[in-house]
Amino acid sequence: MSFYTCLIVMLGGALGTLARYVVSVLTGPYSRMMPWGTIIAVNMVGSFIIAFFGTLTLADGRYAVSENMRLFVMIGLCGGYTTFSSFSLQTLDLLRIGAWGRAMMTVGLSVVLCVGAASLGHILASRLNHHTILVAQADIEEEV
After folding, report:
1. Is 12 exposed, middle or buried (0-12, 13-18, 19+ CB in 10 A)?
2. pTM (two decimals)
3. Which end of the chain has fewer beta carbons closer than 10 Å to its terminal beta carbon, N or C?
4. What gap in Å lies between CA 41 and CA 23, rounded to an integer?
5. Does 142 score more than 60 pLDDT?
């Protein structure tokens, strides 16, 4: 892990985060009842990009690229855009090797534990806010 590699990942992360924000603002009007911007424009697109780019640019793939370029796109850009893309790729890898049980456990645990952690965070913050029961995000953060 060199300083240069860290800069590459940071730049990708910054661009991915900015892209996520822009998509959130643009899809806000369509995402009042369901977070369609997050589900489709962020999570699905990010999952597609990380798997497509990751497969296409393998060392023995059709369009091999440097490891730094892979880190820029897959860890930086996709990671800044959505961590769901990493989750999706890791789950796909488990499915591809036939580890269906581990894949389903990954899906189940990720959903249960992450929603549980978000709930715990919300409860603790609500108590610190004198038991105010408010949603933990503002309208502009709905998609972020």
Report:
1. buried
2. 0.74
3. N
4. 7
5. no
**pLDDT (tens digit, 9 = 90+) per residue, 86-132?**
789 889 999 999 999 999 999 999 899 888 888 887 788 777 767 65
Q: Is 61 left (phi over 0), alpha (psi -120 to 50) or beta?
A: beta
> Residue 143's CB: how many other CB atoms inside 10 A?
23
DSSP assignment of 92-119 equals: HHHHHTT-HHHHHHHHHHHHHHHHHHHH
Task: Write phi, then psi, for 77 (nearest 5 degrees).
Answer: -60, -55
> Alpha-carbon Rg of the chain, whole angstroms?
18
Distance of alpha carbon 142 from the chain centroid: 15
> What is the spatial distance between Cα 93 and Cα 96, in angstroms, rounded to a whole number?
5
